[in-house]
Amino acid sequence: MAKLYAAVIGTGRIGFSLQFDKLREQPASHALALHNNPGIVLASGCDIDASIEARWKKTYPKTRFYTSPFDLLNKEKPDIVCIAVKEDAHLPVTKAVIENKPKLVILEKP
């Protein structure tokens, strides 16, 4: 069976960083849940905060990282997109993702 390729847009708390909280039941982030699924390849992450890139790349060295969701969507065609951005960015990011026609969109309420 072919694997699905996934991207996480918004690598803050629920998107990525909660997986480092040892007090939380794991997986506590979208990134880790996708990464742990044998039918999914976590292909990329994205956050406007470029300082997250080093930790992302250390954790998921085979993935790509973008600081613009629009750059990610112009360069990749993920099957699954988790949108975990701040609420004021939901609409433009969601519209761009839908135009990319993924198989599944997960929209996280902040």
Key words describing this protein structure:
alpha/beta, five-stranded parallel beta sheet, globular
Task: Give the helix/strand layout.
Elements: E1 4-9, H1 30-36, E2 40-46, H2 53-59, E3 64-66, H3 69-75, E4 80-83, H4 90-99, E5 104-107
Parallel strand pairs: 1-2, 1-4, 2-3, 4-5
Kindly state the mean pLDDT as a whole number?
Answer: 95
- The neighbouring-strand order within the major sheet is 3-2-1-4-5
Give the distance, in angstroms, between the N- and C-terminal Cα atoms: 34 Å
Strands, total number:
5
Poorly predicted ranges: none
Roughly what fraction of the amino acids lie in strands?
15-25%
Q: Count the helices. How many?
A: 4
Q: Which overall shape is indicated by the principal axes computed on the Cα atoms?
A: globular
